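Working notes for the structural subgroup meeting. M.R. asked for a predicted model of this chain before we commit to crystallization trials. I am recording the input and output together here so anyone reviewing the notebook later can reproduce the run.

Input as submitted:
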Amino acid sequence: MLPFDFRPIAVAALFVPFAAFTTTLRAQDTPTERAAGADVVKQMAALQRTLDVPALVAKLTGANPARDAIAARAKTLMDTELLAMADDIARHPEVGFKEERSVRVLTEYLKAHDFDVTIGVAGLQTAFVARYRRGTPGPNLGIILEYDALRGTTGDFHGDQHSAQGPTGIAAGIAVAEFLTRSKTPGTVTFYGTPAEEMMPPPSKTVMHEAHVFDGADVIVRSHSSMGTQRAAHGFGSCCLNIDGVKYTFSGAPAHQMTPWEGRDALTAAIHLFNNVDAIRRNLRPEARIQGIITEGGKAPNVVPDRAVADFYVRYPDQVYLAQVREMVDNAARAAALATGTVVKIEPYGSMRDGISSAALNEVAFGYLKKYGGTKVQDEPGKPQGFEETGSVSSAIPGVGFSAHTSNGGFHTYEMEADGLGAVGHQGFVVDAQAMASLLYDFATRADYRAAVKREFDTTRALFSAYISALDKAYPKPVVKAP
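Returned structure, recorded in token form:
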């Protein structure tokens, strides 16, 4: 899934003088959100002034031979072993929940570097956790590894470069773990292998989160492919709008197509659902996105289909109005069933929600991406979004996504896959690994940095609750009277 889109959303660019700060505040997605969230945006801006993130970035990314040695170790691991691993995974793509070979390659390497591995966590066959066996009580540094391929019409492929996310994270984590042991610094490293990032139902990270797999992590990092060296702004948001995944299954009665009146056509009901959705779009706010496909629609043209299934993603910038959109789409399905004499089963199977985005993490990460040679630097931050796409983990645990320039092609394209196997991808992956190792070093060794991250995260999390409460009052339903 895409790591960034650039819809304008909350709060300011950080690297500006204080006098300019209040004039560069950027608003939420919609006019309603801007009005409802105005007080929350002001409070987030005040929080940023007290954190003084630009000074924090300058202090952490300045000269530090110990940190640079760890970054150099991450680079050596990439250059000598892990770029080859990334290429190997790219050449053997496996789609979500079928990544057996990729998991084996990643976990065997981790076992050889002092990590104890548990595969099949949270009931997911290709999910795993790898814990540093030489770790000590102290900060628990979490790293998300992804490895699933995209489903393509001509074959599965790594058009989002998930093939490199595992090796990149491993290079950073091993470099930091070795430092912790060598220097007797309190702390440990935990890798989280999260399958099927490109698939619902439901998002694997949400399943793992609800199974408490991530419990105990003090910070979590991950990398992702990118067409520029970039970072998210602070605040709360989602990469691809808030999403409800819903399956609508229509049940009818079979009959010969020469006497269709003797049956009830489930496929006609599914088609009615699509027509009904198109009809209600004019009564929905323009930012809503409703996308669906028919996954089942009968087996033979001479038999009235008695079963049809439609799979929908229903999206909106916030979860409050999304609930109204869902209600209307569900009612469109019920109406389609009523009109055709069929019965519909409505099955919500997954959701994605806003996560929390931390300036104390994002801006330090961005500083390191530039320090280690990230190209196509995008100085203006993107919209706020959680560091992982489901919103579940990133709303509970602070973290950051690293996005150095790794491709000149678009997301989910064959060009991005090719770049991942070439110089532009390799350079970006090494930059990500060095930057990630450096930030984890800072987090492990500086109690003041950990405190700043925690204060920002906890305050933003509380403000998100206030924001949702404000939106609850901002979307009144029209009163519809009986005729």
